[in-house]
Amino acid sequence: MTESTYAAITGWGSCMPPAVLSNDDLSTFLDTSDEWIITRTGMKERRISHVSATELATLAARRALACADLDPADVDLIIYGGVSNEELCPNSASGVQVSLGAQNAASMDLNTACTSFCYGLAAATGMIRTGQVRNAVVIGVELISRYMDWENRNVAVLFGDGAAAVVLQATDNEEGMLASVLGCDAQARQTLRVRGFGCGYSGYGITLGDTFWDFDGQQIFKRAVLGMSRASRDVLAQSGLKAEDISLVVPHQANLRIIESVAKYAGISMERVMLTVEKYGNMSAATVPVALVEALEEGRVEPNSWLLMPAFGGGLTYCSLLVKWGSRTIPLEQTDVELPPCNESALELVNQVRARQDPYGRSRDGLLAPVFPEAQLRDGDSVV
Ligand code: UT7
């Protein structure tokens, strides 16, 4: 272990699919409205991908590598963070490794749902700081539209697709992720549950895209505010920093009201919070890195400034990362590789998935069971 080794963020890049699904598009097949979705969540649009999750992840990683001017052959580690995998085996990171030509990279998937990118950033930083690897690519990617429970308005309006990646490189400068608080409120793990694939469902023969979601929005909301607020308070205390030292919060974006509550408890004004929820919704693991990339592109990340990244998701995992940005906020290089053109509207893409769902006319009753009793917020729990 080299005490003085840090993990600088030297590259960043995103890959947003072009097809835009509006709230009005959702109203064509769900009993919902633009007004309800905006008021309750702050969301107006989300993206729907016409390509695979591997393609989204690879292009985001390619852009991040160009930004760092790093050869894929010099990458020692790829972490694919997210819940959207093409298959259980082989893993998705190995697919990205092949597409990138990063043949020397250890390649692993990391699934803590919406926090996967942040957990991955913490894991890769630890591996660099202990000298196991020198160059890492950490990706947050989701293709939730392919397995969304599109008939369930409680969840169908909330999520979108996307990907972004960062490059981490060993450095002697004290920068990169310098502190983290990671946790898991597992008593409530059943409040956010995707039923339909995994070994537990082999008896049903259910395939991807034919899933049902358990989703207790109010429980998740309260626990999200609690988890993100406490983790942010603790990571600041750990580092001896105060709210006023943070120049930008780059939070998970599941609901504008959650973000506002977390910022309030942290004592940070909304002017210092990066928001993408209105145009991308909740992209699970892709949310924080996409917001980070956009913050850099908009010039909102100051050289040598402190960033706070609180997130939460299925599990219910939560975290808050403290990042000291380095001196460079512009890319070294760029790639001109683009996604193939999309010839369908987002609504057409969604309707294709809907048409494939439940092809055998099964009742969803067989898959629905009561939410576990321990999922309730305990008396005395507060959000501060
Ligand atoms: O990344 C982790 C993932 N998840 C989250 O972070 C989600 C956290 N939870 C939330 O963001 C919010 O709880 C929601 C946005 C999901 C829901 O907002 P809410 O203010 O908690 O609404 P609610 O569940 O209390 O529902 C209020 C009403 C209900 O109708 P009644 O019982 O008052 O007549 C719902 O049936 O709104 C109804 N409703 C809808 N109406 C139109 C629920 N979903 C919809 C919808 N469109 N999509």
Tell me the CATH architecture: 3-Layer(aba) Sandwich
- Taken together, the total number of domains comes to 1
Associated small molecules = oxa(dethia)-CoA
Count of individual helical segments: 11
Helix content: 25-40%
Apparent shape: globular
Please describe the biggest sheet, giving its number of strands, its sense, and whether it closes into a barrel. Answer: 5 strands, mixed
Reading off the top of the CATH hierarchy, the class is best stated as Alpha Beta
Give the end-to-end Cα distance, rounded to a whole number of Å.
37 Å
Instruction: Give the strand line-up of the largest sheet.
Output: 1-7-6-4-5
- Which radius of gyration do the C-alpha atoms yield? 20 Å
Descriptive overview:
Residues 365-379 have low confidence and may be disordered. The protein is built from eleven helices and 13 strands. It is α/β, with parallel strands linked by helices and 384 residues long. Helix 3 packs across helix 4 and helix 7 (217-239) packs parallel to helix 8. Strand 4, helix 4 (92-100) and strand 5 (106-110) form a beta-alpha-beta unit. The chain has a single domain (6-330, 346-356), classed as 3-Layer(aba) Sandwich (Peroxisomal Thiolase, Chain A, domain 1). It has a five-stranded mixed β-sheet with strand order 1-7-6-4-5, with helices on both faces. It has helices at residues 23-27, 34-41, 53-68, 92-100, 116-129, 153-156, 217-239, 256-266, 277-280, 287-297, 346-356, and strands spanning 6-15, 19-22, 45-48, 77-81, 106-110, 135-142, 162-171, 176-184, 192-195, 212-215, 246-249, 306-313, 317-324. Oxa(dethia)-CoA is lined by residues 32, 36, 40-41, 114, 153-154, 157, 192, 217-218, 220-221, 224, 254-255, 282, 313.
